[in-house]
Each structure stands twice: as C-alpha cells, then as structure tokens.
Amino acid sequence: MPVATLLPFTATPNRKSASPTSFRLTEKFILLLVFSAFITLCFGAIFFLPDSSKLLSGVFFHSSAVETNTRTGPDGGDSGSAGNDERVLAKIRKDHEKALLEAKDTLQKRPDEIKQDILNDKEKVAVDSAGQGGKQVNNLPFVEYHRPPGATGHEPLDPETRDRRTKVREMMKHAWDSYRRFAWGSNELRPVSKQGHSSNLFGSIKGATIVDALDTLYIMEMFEEFDVATEWVEKNLDFNVNAEVSVFEVNIRFVGGLLSAYYLSGKEVFRRKAVELGEKLLPAFKTPTGIPWALLNLKSGIGRNWPWASGGSSILAEYGTLHLEFMHLSKLSGNPEFAQKVMNIRKVLNRLDKPQGLYPNYLNPNSGQWGQHHVSVGGLGDSFYEYLLKAWLMSDKTDEEGKKMYYDALQAIETNLMRKSSNGLTYIAEWKGGLLEHKMGHLTCFAGGMIALGADGAPSDKTGHQMEQAAEIARTCHESYARTEMLFSLQALEQHCKVEGGYSGIRDVYASTPNHDDVQQSFYLAETLK
C-alpha cells in the first residue's frame, strides 16, 4: 500500500480531480473548530444558565411541569411560554420551601420515630397499590397512626416535683437494669437471689416484665432501654406455647402492655403481637353463656376455672377486666369479634338480678347464674368497676351503657357497703349473703382514685359529694400506711424494698424488720413507679 494512503493529511491534493464541493485540508480544520465551539456553547448554556434546572428536568427527568409546557405546541406563542416558565419556577420554589419545612420537622424527631414514619408510609403505599380492600399481607388493616400529645417532652415547673420525678426515674432504672442483668427474658426477677422467676399465671410465655414495662420506659424517656425491649419483643416474644395461662393476667400485662406501647410509639410490631395474642385468647369465650374461662391452654384452646372459685365460677374482676383491651383489638385488627365477646358479657350481667344492686364476685359460665353471694370492691371485684368507668371515658363518653352500669353500681356500693368507723375513717366493707364484713382490703384503695375520676361525670348535685367520698377513702388508706412499722412512701420503698439486685416485696409490713419475698413483680415497673 502506498505511503500516501497511510498519511492522508500530508499527501499533496490533486487539484485537478477535486470536485467543486470538496474542501482543502485547512478549510476542513476551520469547520471542525467552528462546530466544536457551537457544541460547547450549547451545552454550556444548558448547565450554566439560570433556568438550567428546569431545562435539565425537562430533558432528562420529564418533569410534569415541563411536559405541560411542551404540550402547548406551536400555537402557544412566546407569551404562553413565558407564563408557563413562571409557573414552573413558582412550583420549584414552593416544593423547595415544603422540603425545607419537612426536613426541619424531621430533624426534631428521634431516629426511631423517623424510621417508624418511613415504615408507615411504606405500608400505606403497599396497601394503596395492592388494591386488596385495605388489607396487608398479615391481614391487619392499615391504621393511620396519631402520636398522643403530651406523652413525653415536658418538665414540671415546680422544683420539688422535678426532683421527685428524677428520683422515681432513678428507681425505674435500678429496677430495669437489675432485671436486664439477672433475669433478662424471664417473666420476673428474684432481686435477692439475683435470678429469673416465672409464675404459672403466664404458662411458658416469657418476658412479662419487658412487655409490662414498655410504656413506663417510653413516658420516662428511657428510649435506649425502650429500643432494647422492642428488639426483644420482635425477636423473642412467642405465644405458640402448649401451656395453660391466666386469661386475666395475660390480658392486662401482655395485651395491655403491647397496646400501650403501640399507641405511644406507633411501632407495628406491638400491634401485630397484641392482635396475635388476642386471637389466641378468644377460645376462652367458648362457654354456654360466653362468660370466659379463667384459665386457657393456648395451644388446645381448652379452658377451665379455678377449682376454688365457688363451684367452678368465673370471677368478676377477671372476666370484667377485658373490655378496654378487647375493644382496642377490634379497632386495630378490623375484627369485630373481640368487641362482640366483651359486649356480650354486659348483656349477660344486665339480664341477671343483682342483690341490692350489687355484683357478686362469682358467676357460673355454664348456667349463667351467680355463685356465692360475696361482694367486694377489693380483691375479686375491684377492676370490674374501674373498667366500667374507663370504658365510658375511653369512648369519648359515648358508651352510655358503661356509664349507667358504673354509676348504678357506685350508688349500690355507697348504700350497702360504705361505712364510717368509730374513729371517723370511711371504708368500703365486704358483703356475704346479706351480712357485712367490716373490713377493707388493701386492693380496695384504688377506689379513692376511681371515684374521684368519675365524679366529674356524675349528676351535678353529686359531683362534690363523690369527691368528698374519694378523699375520705384515700385518707383511710393513708392511715393504713402510716400505722405500719415501715411507713410506706417513695422513701420507704427505697429504705425497705430496695436491694442490690432490684426491689423486693415484703411479706409483713407490720414487722420491725423487712422479710423480703424475693420477687420484683412486673407491675412494680408498669404501675407502681408510674
């Protein structure tokens, strides 16, 4: 091959054979320079002119605003294009401001709250796109979560109150840290022997203290501990057990604990676990009357009552303390069966004749008749009355049936059970077969708070009277504490119940020296320290 063909730019052109449209080498080089300059100018304009973001979004990302502009066609004219440009710029500015506000709001949230918002958004998108009637994969409906106001982030103005609050938080930390160190995953802690403890009330379900303490950890803003507890619930809380449990205890500690944690944090794991456990408790209602059994095997679904409970009766404080949780289970699961079960309990009770308007503690679930006529506002009866009032309040005061049952019961209690001792202390006696037993158990002391809570909803002529009753009962209970050898208060718990491994109950508060029972109950973290 000739060398000239390898070096075309150095070969001498044959001018005679060139066509009129052909260019010399120097002309070609000049044209190449001009073309390069033009390309550079065009791309420079795209990247550096003020409206470049709009143009780029239109070219590369097909923004809806730019697409609208291009759809106007040749008839749009320059004035229309200018107007569209202004609208696009205004939209960009508006979106920018919105993004800044959202970012500012997000920065004020905790990392786990941001994560939860993302998960909620994902679930909403999944539900909207699935088109399955609002059902998720786990068959729970989408629920728009609203964080309750005032649960965290507030400090009391009074210095003494702040100091007390700080002290109680320290007590909670000691109880929690001890449980985590010596009994993590067990239901409860033995603080003296520093090991785990489990009552047969929970069968072989584990982690009662963890679940029961969730809401206390949250409202005390112990968020690191709350996150650790949440992780345990997600990975380890298992209800697939072949064991008999107390329906009442499992409901108030596990279902109640999970529901409270869900409403405070919005974490779906708590809603999912609460509904899962609630479904396992439903077989307890398979009785001729629908009054549930006290005990239930979670695997077989076979139930029974305590053998000591008046000929196999169900207990008022147990079957009457399911209402709040089961109403919420229906709301969060979309399954009306939970609510139907507890509303049926009311139907049974309303059909029965009540001696002197009072509710006996025992009811046979087979015959639907009262067992032994023993009435107590303390043990065996207490929380039934509390739940009547709170069901009305929880319904935003629309549950008129619950309201009537509560105030009618309170009137019967005042008439038949409330008495005053010779030294002027008001108490609520117990009633057995028409005869009063003039004693008031410690569990009855909740009634002072209950009556005060309900006084505002009483008829106007009874509000003041009920507040006086509440104060008198509270005074009686205070006296019962003050007259013990171990004066019980926040300081007394520290002095007598605190041990190196947590807080222990005391067998006899009238003894001069404490005899510890070596159990840190889950409700110490869930209720006492609140």
UniProtKB/TrEMBL annotation:
Keywords: Calcium, Disulfide bond, Glycoprotein, Glycosidase, Golgi apparatus, Hydrolase, Membrane, Metal-binding, Signal-anchor, Transmembrane, Transmembrane helix. It is an enzyme of class 3 (hydrolase). One of its GO terms (cellular component) is Golgi membrane. Disulfide bonds join C445-C477. It catalyses: N(4)-(alpha-D-Man-(1->2)-alpha-D-Man-(1->2)-alpha-D-Man-(1->3)-[alpha-D-Man-(1->3)-[alpha-D-Man-(1->2)-alpha-D-Man-(1->6)]-alpha-D-Man-(1->6)]-beta-D-Man-(1->4)-beta-D-GlcNAc-(1->4)-beta-D-GlcNAc)-L-asparaginyl-[protein] (N-glucan mannose isomer 8A1,2,3B1,3) + 3 H2O = N(4)-(alpha-D-Man-(1->3)-[alpha-D-Man-(1->3)-[alpha-D-Man-(1->6)]-alpha-D-Man-(1->6)]-beta-D-Man-(1->4)-beta-D-GlcNAc-(1->4)-beta-D-GlcNAc)-L-asparaginyl-[protein] (N-glucan mannose isomer 5A1,2) + 3 beta-D-mannose; N(4)-(alpha-D-Man-(1->2)-alpha-D-Man-(1->2)-alpha-D-Man-(1->3)-[alpha-D-Man-(1->2)-alpha-D-Man-(1->3)-[alpha-D-Man-(1->2)-alpha-D-Man-(1->6)]-alpha-D-Man-(1->6)]-beta-D-Man-(1->4)-beta-D-GlcNAc-(1->4)-beta-D-GlcNAc)-L-asparaginyl-[protein] (N-glucan mannose isomer 9A1,2,3B1,2,3) + 4 H2O = N(4)-(alpha-D-Man-(1->3)-[alpha-D-Man-(1->3)-[alpha-D-Man-(1->6)]-alpha-D-Man-(1->6)]-beta-D-Man-(1->4)-beta-D-GlcNAc-(1->4)-beta-D-GlcNAc)-L-asparaginyl-[protein] (N-glucan mannose isomer 5A1,2) + 4 beta-D-mannose. GO terms for biological process: carbohydrate metabolic process; N-glycan processing. Its EC number is 3.2.1.-. It is a single-pass type II membrane protein. Its cofactor is Ca(2+). The keyword Amino-acid biosynthesis does not apply. Its main location: Golgi. The keyword Methyltransferase does not apply. Coiled coil: none annotated. Belongs to the glycosyl hydrolase 47 family. This is alpha-1,2-Mannosidase. The gene is man1a1.
